[in-house]
Amino acid sequence: MDTLSFERLPADVHEDICHWLVHGDSDSPDAKSSRKHSNDRYSGLRAVAALARTSRTLHESAADILWEWIPNLALLFYTLPRECYTTEQTEDRTIAFEIIRQLQDADLVRFRLYAARVNKVGVWDYTEDFSFLPRKVQAYASTHNSLLELCRVATVNGWRLLPNLTTLACTEETLPVSVSSHLPHLFGPSLREFKFEQHNLDKGPALDGTFPTAHVEGEENIVTMLVALRPHAAQLERLNIRVDDSSPPMVEAFWDVVLSCRNLVALDSGYFPLTPAALHHLAHLPLLEQLHFASLNGAFTKKWILEFESLLPSETFPRLHTSYMILVNLDLATAIVNHITSPSLRGLEIEIHRKRVPSVTIHRFFHSFCRLPDISALQWFHLRCTVFCHDSPGTSPAPITDKMLRPFLASSRIDFFELFVECPFDLDDAFIADMVRAWPNINNLRLGGSYPRGVGYVPEVTWNGIIKMARGWPGLKELSVEFDTDLSRASATRLEEVLESNRMNRFKSRRTLDFMHVGLSKVENDMAVATLLSELFTPITEIHSDWYDLAMQEEAEEQRRMEKEGDAFQPDPQLAERVALYATYHDRWCSMENPMRHIDLIRRQEGVMVEHGALDSESDDESMSSLD
């Protein structure tokens, strides 16, 4: 292509060229990885900077790409006269930019020219790929007083510092909340995404279920910031707030912003307690796709949930894709699932915090998934809670059965399914086989939390189910399931198929499992278990069980009973024997990796001998005998 033809290309093509030079292929993870590990990862950035200085054709496009996303306003200080600011490296290697004299309108001519190109300020939660900028530039920070001076000039002259800003991520590093009253001078009608983060490094977020504290230090600044944001709420598409401490004025100001939103696509309200009015409003937003919230203060009473259930479900959550909820009861989650009319629900994550759930409630919750318009779109699901028997306290709650989980089998897209539910699970090999057929792409399966059912309990999931999962799920990386390790219940035909397959392809059909959780699975013959596991998986680095936790739990209960009964206390005569047995099971699972690696080493040595014709088929008979 000659120069004239290149100059005649549309401006957006020139911009795409510059964007690719700086960021690479934004849709390709491999391209990002190669840039991070290349010898000169900033070559594209330097090339675009050179084009901005030397090319008439690409100057505008190159300058736009260079300035569209900056980590901090400090980067713009280079456009100010040099005598206006100083730089100093702090102890944490941050390079602080400080304005040292009062700015005049003439000082900001170049500043405003380049600031108009800025679309995004800030880096959010270290999840965004910012590797195209040198680390030194990422360490730039403007001081508090410098930001105040910039805002003062903007106020006096009646213009905005960043008139075309679409995304603003506020942290104490990029934009301290103490300057939040000046936010209207930062952005204009182009703002679509606002993120704010402030953490209490001393104690973290308050998740004790209490109401917001009466007063939070610095709350006036946050309230002022939210009040300044509210006039722009109608145009917001994404709103993300993460604040560890909240007070009633902060909560009210935040939800006032949300209630003013009309085009919201994604909301993450952090630990701000959700209000009934806000949930009612969010349920009817036509574009809402992502909803992350917490409700730990008991604001949602049974009466309100019943009123919410009466809403016309055809009008609620029409485009919801994902939702993450931290709650104190499962009834609210059930009501929300009942009202999801979106045919594109991809994922749900629900945690019940510090409260036990009646078993009848969890049955209703799972039944609510039968009402989803299209459960086949679901890709991931996570539930964490503890279940109790409401009708008869002290007895085991009703178990989770295959009938309750069967609706999820309608989605072949599921690759992540976690049930950290502390209650009995009654599943068997037949249902495991159905799961393997229904979910061909799964890589993470967790079934069950820790729930003791007595030493005599024998799970219905056996080696047949484990073999089915190992052979049927090539992408499986994490597995949590309680099963019977007795090899006498395993199908001899299936065991022979595994051994024959491994002999034929030199163990290439084994899976690489990163983590395995076996709950309270008993292990009597650890060498036999290790041998079969090594036939199915490469050595597993982490194998966890719940036997140690059960021992601690029973000993603690014995201690509490002794303190309560005093002189009338009669010790449990079987406790020491049970705890010793628990410790044996715990130790066997913890050390399972060692025999697996030893068996692996023997196999590699046998493989070398086979290649040299020094080993006959008797070794196969020995492998079978080790499983007896």
Automatic annotation (TrEMBL):
SUPFAM superfamilies: RNI-like. This is F-box domain-containing protein. It comes from Lentinus brumalis. InterPro entries: LRR_dom_sf.
